[in-house]
Automatic annotation (TrEMBL):
GO terms for molecular function: carbohydrate derivative binding; isomerase activity. Pfam families: SIS_2 (PF13580). This is Sugar isomerase domain-containing protein. Gene3D superfamilies: Glucose-6-phosphate isomerase like protein, domain 1 (3.40.50.10490). Keywords: Isomerase. It comes from the Bacteria. Residues 37-223 form the SIS domain. It comes from Streptomyces cyaneochromogenes. Transmembrane segments: none annotated. The keyword Nucleotide-binding does not apply. NCBIfam families: PRK02947.1. GO terms for biological process: carbohydrate derivative metabolic process.
Amino acid sequence: MSDESVSARRFARESMAVLDRVTESAQGDVARAAGLIADCVRADGVIQAFGTGHSQAVVLELAGRAGGLVPTNRLSIADLVLYGGESPGVLDDPLLERRAGVAARIYDLAAPRPQDLFVVISNSGVNNVIVEMALRAKEHGHRVLAITSLTHTRAVPAGHPSGKKLADLADVVLDNRAPRGDALLELPEGGAVCALSTLTGVLLVQMAVAEASARLIAAGERPPVYVSANVPGGFEGNLELEKRYAGRIRRTAS
């Protein structure tokens, strides 16, 4: 290995190369994802975004942020405590995301409507709670958009009793092109460092939102988009937009 095998410069170079490949290769899938998003907004639906672990970073990029769509909801394992009455101690269980029934409970607490779109994010796409959420959404007639690593998910066994993985259940799959294990730079003595999936996942989310917004504009509709609360009138304007989805979207301190 060269002296630059692990460096800031190499990570920047290689990650940007992957971002370029994602930009080009995902155009068709992004268009299909944008169709799901635009259809959901037109139908007065809410985009229900769910992920665990560091996939929550991509959920946050979609749900409830400045420049993002208003009809979005962040689903989380923490909802068991915040809205479900569970003791905070339940979150101490490191294997909670592998427990049967967890996703079903989170789904029920969100009380989604049939026209809501589920965006489920997981690099591996095999954890029980991820697959269970996608299954639950499909059983209730929702469309499912997955953001996952096809390289990783194809390299590991299914973790859910159904034998299904997230990619098997989605109407549209956005491949984040992260490597197996997510980390990009191999270390001299084995292993790897510097995860990629957040960078590519954020790119895919914003590409899909941009394309969905373009479709709404082309249809003569104004995309319901948040303005930063840190500009004059932003907070008040956002409250007005949120009234349309009262009781259906959650906005808590993060």
